[in-house]
Structure formats: structure tokens, C-alpha cells
Amino acid sequence: MRELLCSVLNIYVLVIFVRIILSWFPLRSGGPMSKIHDVLWKVTEPLLGYARRFLPPLGGFDLSPIVVILALQFVVGRLILRCGIA
Question: Residue 49: CB partners within 8 Å, gap ≥ 6?
Fold first, then answer.
């Protein structure tokens, strides 16, 4: 069960990375990449938006993905240590 949770959390981190990379490119409204971006936004925004509420504004930089990724990796690390997977 913990292995499944670790896998799901790692996939979520990957989804956040894909969202970050897609944010660097202009997207046409209604295009296929725009639809993918919309799905990624709906999946990741609840957690990123929550983290964003606690972070001070830093001149237009959004550090919420970094904070969320670090927190998720900490959780995965704790699960692996507790489970003895490593």
C-alpha cells in the first residue's frame, strides 16, 4: 500500500514538472496542448494554490511548485524509510 502511495506521489511530482515546463511556452486557446494544460492545471492547482497562500510574493516568481515538490519528496522519503523499501 505504501509503495502505491509513493508511486502516486511521484507521478504527482512529475505532473507538476510538466505543468512548469508547459508554462514556459505560449499556448493557443483551444489547441491540444491547451487542453493538456487545462487538465494539469485542474489536477495541480488545489495543492499549489494552497501553498501559494502561505508564500510571500517574490517579484512575480511563483515558488509554490518548489515548496510542494519538496514537501512531497519529504513525505515519499519518510514512507520509504518507514517501509524499508530502500
Answer: 64
